[in-house]
Amino acid sequence: YISTHFKSEKFKKYFGSGKKWNININYLNEKTPLGTAGSLSLLPFNEINIPILVMNADILTDIDFKNLLKTHLKSRSSVTMCVREQLKESEFGVVTFSRGHLQKIVEKPIEKKIINAGIYVINIKELLHIKKNTYLDMPTLLNNLVKKNKKVKLHYIYEDWNDVGNISQLNKMSQKK
Asked: How many CA atoms does the CB half-sphere of 70 hold within 13 Å?
C-alpha cells in the first residue's frame, strides 16, 4: 500500500500496479493530508491479519527488513520503532560557566542523540482505534500507545540510512551513487 495525497497521479503513473517489479501495489488516497498514522485508517483491516511495516517515503535504507520483522515478532511488542544514532558536531566551542566565570570550554563537541528513523512494524489491532480520515502523526500515535501501557520496542539500525526529504539531501545521495 502506498498512501498518496500530494501529486498522487505522478506516483500512480510511475509505480502503476507494481507489475514491473513483480509486486502488487494498492493506493490509499488521502482527500486531505492525514499524517503517517492517520493514513493507516484507510487500510482494509478486514483483509490484514499480520503486523504491517510502515516507512516514510523520503528514506533510503539498506535495512534488513526480514530481521526487523523477526525481531518484532520475537519481542511480542505492539510496535517496533526503528531508531539510529545521530552525531552532530557543534560549529563552535561550547562554554560551561558559573557566576560569570569559565568552568570549562570544549572545542566543537559532538552531541549524540538517538533519533526516530521513520520505520515501524505495527500490530494491526493497534490501528483499529485510529479515527478514519482524521489527521494523526506517528509520534502522537506512539505516545498514545505508551500511555495505554502498550509495549513499543526500539530496534537500532546500523545499516545505511538516509533521509532525502529535502533537495540538498537528495542531491547528496545522488552524488554518492
From this structure: 5
